[in-house]
């Protein structure tokens, strides 16, 4: 995760990465697919960053304390690289967004491959709400209102859904443990995560002068615009 000063765009001003993910990616020759970010977002005052990784979890990074320095002599115990870790969802089939929720970033929100919207308490890492949010199976994008308790979500359904806290009963967690267990063991899709990225990478290597063309990889397929 790189942060750039727009006045000096040639090199990042700071870089961040959970230590164990950095170690996996440093061994990329032995790995069939590198872990990569699908979304990163600042909190309300710019002191923290949320990063969501494919086939991995969501991490809260302190911008002052968790900077990743390559070739550092720090041990794995000293260089964890994050403050909090949010688990339970599944970020595999398509690229997932992530967002803070609340005027002081009290909550973390993400969609999942399992059709549900997850809300964690930022400090405790506990899931405090989960909502069935997509009939067709995947919740991708999350946007929180900057002042009011309102969320917008979208996924594979044709609708964008707006969520407001009007339910009179407490959250119902029935079935959540089973879904989370399935999320933790579900294998990633070889079509989305191996086959299409491999084709794209091969195309870029065979066409070194094609970087300026209107072709981009959107996480699902190579798409011409």
TrEMBL record:
Name assigned to this protein: WD-repeat protein
Keyword Repeat listed: yes
Source organism of this protein record: Papilio xuthus
One cellular component term from this protein's GO annotations in UniProt: cytoplasm
Alphabetical list of InterPro entries matching this protein: DCAF8 (IPR045151), WD40/YVTN_repeat-like_dom_sf (IPR015943), WD40_repeat_dom_sf (IPR036322), WD40_rpt (IPR001680)
Pfam families hit by this protein: WD40
This protein's UniProt keywords: Repeat, WD repeat
SUPFAM superfamilies membership: WD40 repeat-like (SSF50978)
Gene3D superfamilies per record: YVTN repeat-like/Quinoprotein amine dehydrogenase (2.130.10.10)
Keyword Repeat in annotation: yes
